[in-house]
Amino acid sequence: MSETTDLRGPATLEAWTCPAPLRDRPRVVMGHGGGGALSAELVQHVFAPAFGGEVLAQMGDAAALSLGGVRLAFSTDSFVVRPLFFPGGSIGDLAVNGTVNDLAMSGARAAYLSCGFILEEGVEVEVVARVAEALGAAARTAGVEVATGDTKVVEAGHGDGIFINTAGIGLIPAGVDLRPQRVVPGDVVIVSGAIGVHGVAIMSVREGLEFGVEIESDCAALGGLVDAMLAVTPDLHVLRDPTRGGLAAALNEIAAASGAGVVVRERDVPVPPAVANACAILGLDPLYVANEGKLVAFVPREHADAVLGAMRAHPLGADARIIGEAVEAHPGMVVARTGLGGTRVVDLPIGEQLPRIC
């Protein structure tokens, strides 16, 4: 924070500037969509009181429902990524994989999706067709059917080419109960592979930056990987895909909901050299950079080695690693043990280091 008043006179709060948005702002700022503390406050103080309901109170990646004696997972997500096409994927791929993965984090295998396109007047039909083709191909790869949809057009200047909303439903297998409240001290924390890849891939294209090698998004559907993990044991405690706010946001959400502390060994967190170099140059922390094809799991210690082995046998979990554990100390807080032997608090981010990445 920097003071802009005359240093010889009294300081006034109104004259200060701050790179992070003040959390009592009366208007929406970009940080409200970043998956961090501002997003949580918007949900807690605006949406949750307006909507209410026990199901909404789960606040998971997908809602677990019981309908006619059948356990379902139901999720929705909106995608506003810029640019529409990037190394490793497009907004069409994200629209499928993002929702499929939200369902997978409840243990469900996605069955059907809805798809809503919001198009800006003037966007080329050929671009719309490319996105639609990518979306359809991603759905087929994920084994999910687009069952219904909608299209709206807004005036030129009131959109950004294409926005997409998808909602999905899937069946939750018997015996599967994935939620952060099941986390207990002693649980092992496993991440399915290298973090920060998607966010850096988007940033490199958007800003025209080069880091010596092309970085491709890790965008992928994780249903098959989750199936492999559940085949070892249905007694996984919680899964999360660390998208907006990155691994740090996902771990903080789990810690807060469970009441357990979380310790992460920083040197064990897989960060590719290209991502580490990009973050060092730009002053970013890889723990806060978004991912679109990774998951983090809290697993009972007695099952951790077997689950890790099953993950490494799957193409999307080949680089899976144990990175930490849940502990009794510092309940609700995430800390990282650094390579130098110290510790640092890993807070929930206020907003987003890299906006518009999903």
From TrEMBL:
Domain PurM-like N-terminal: 60-172
BP terms from Gene Ontology: protein maturation
Entry-linked Gene3D superfamilies: PurM-like C-terminal domain (3.90.650.10), PurM-like, N-terminal domain (3.30.1330.10)
Residues of the PurM-like C-terminal domain: 185-330
InterPro entries referenced in this protein's UniProt entry, alphabetically: HypE, PurM-like_C_dom, PurM-like_C_sf, PurM-like_N, PurM-like_N_sf
SUPFAM superfamilies found in the cross-reference section: PurM C-terminal domain-like, PurM N-terminal domain-like
A Pfam family it matches: AIRS
Family: Belongs to the HypE family.
Protein name per UniProt: Hydrogenase expression/formation protein HypE
Organism: Streptomyces avermitilis
